[in-house]
Amino acid sequence: MADGIEIPHFIRLSDLSDRQIEDVLELSARIKRGVSRAELAGRTVGMLFFRGSLRTRISLEVAMHQLGGDTVNLTAASDFWELEAREGTVMDGAAPEHIKDAATVLSSYLSALAIRPAPAGASWEVDRRDEGIHAWAACSQVPVINMESALWHPLQALADLLTLRETLGDLRGKRLAITWTHSPEPASPAVIHSIVLAALRNGMRVAVAHPAGFELDGGVLDEARRVSSSTGGELEIGLGMETAVSGAHIVYARSWKSLEVYGNPTLAASRMARTGDWLVDEKLMALGEEARLMHPMPVRRNLEVTDEVLDGPRSLLYRQAENRLHTQKGLLSLLLRR
Ligand code: CP
Description:
By secondary structure, this protein is of the alpha/beta class. It contains 14 helices and eleven strands. The strands form three sheets. It has a five-stranded parallel sheet. Helix 2 packs across helix 14 and helix 8 runs parallel beside helix 9. Bound molecules: phosphoric acid mono(formamide)ester. The site of phosphoric acid mono(formamide)ester has 8 residues, from helix 2.
C-alpha cells in the first residue's frame, strides 16, 4: 500500500511529485476496479463554493461518503457572508469576518478544506495571482484543496490523466490537440493550463489551437516550455483547429476567455464576434489518428461540439467525468489517511 501524501495544500498539480501522482492514479484505478475501503471514517471535508458546480461538488461528496467520511457543503451566495482577505485593513465594509479567522475556526472542525473561489473578473493580472485560494491556504491548519481557481483545476487534471492513460496507455509521444471552442460564457483557462502542464510532464506532444487574442497565460506557457524541455514533450501554440487536430490521438475542446481583453465585456464581445467557426465536428475529428474527444464539461452542444461527436464512439466525456469520482477518492484516501 502506498504511503499517505503529506503536502501542505493541493492548489495545483505540481504540488504533487511524479511519485505521488503515480500513487494517486494507481490507487484510483484500483478503486475504479472495485478495490476500496471505508478508511476515512471520522474525517470531514468542508467545501466552500464561491461559484457554482455540478461535477466537482457531487463527485467530492460521493467520494468522501464512499470512503466512510463526511462532507459539509456551503455556498457563499446563500450560506455565509463576504470574507475579508486583505491584511491589516479596517473592516468597516461589507465583510464582517476575516478569512484568517474563518480558516482557523474551520480548521478545528475539518480534516481538509476544499475551495472553489470566484475570481473578481476585472483584471487578469490580479486574478492570475489566485489570491483567494492562497489566502485560505495561508491561514488554514488543514490541507486546502483547489476546486478550480482562475489559474488551475488540479482535480480535473488528475481525472484527465487517468482518462488519457486508460485510452492511450503510455502517453509519451502521443499527440494531444487542445482546441478553443465557442461559448457565450467562456471559462477561465484553468482547465487548459492544468492539462497542458500535465500532458507535457508525461512527454506528450501538445498542439493548442485558438483564435488570435485567446493566448494562454504567458507565465504558464513559460513554465510549459521549461517542463517540455526536461521531459521530451513538445508544445505548439496559436495553431488553427485543423492543423492542431491533424494526427492527434486526443482532441481536448474547451472555451476560454480572452485574457487580452479580460474584464472588458464590450471588447470581449467584439473579439468573440470576430472569431468565426470554432466548432468540433466529425469532419474535424476525422483528421486525427482515430482521435477521441475530451472536454471537462459542461459542454454547449452544437456550439462547442456537435451532437454527432458527443453522442458517438469518439466521445470520452462521460468516462472523463466519472473519473473525477475515482481520482478524488484516490487523492483523498492518500491525503487524509492517518
Ligand atoms: N469540470 C468541472 O469542474 O465541472 P463543474 O464545474 O460542474 O464542477
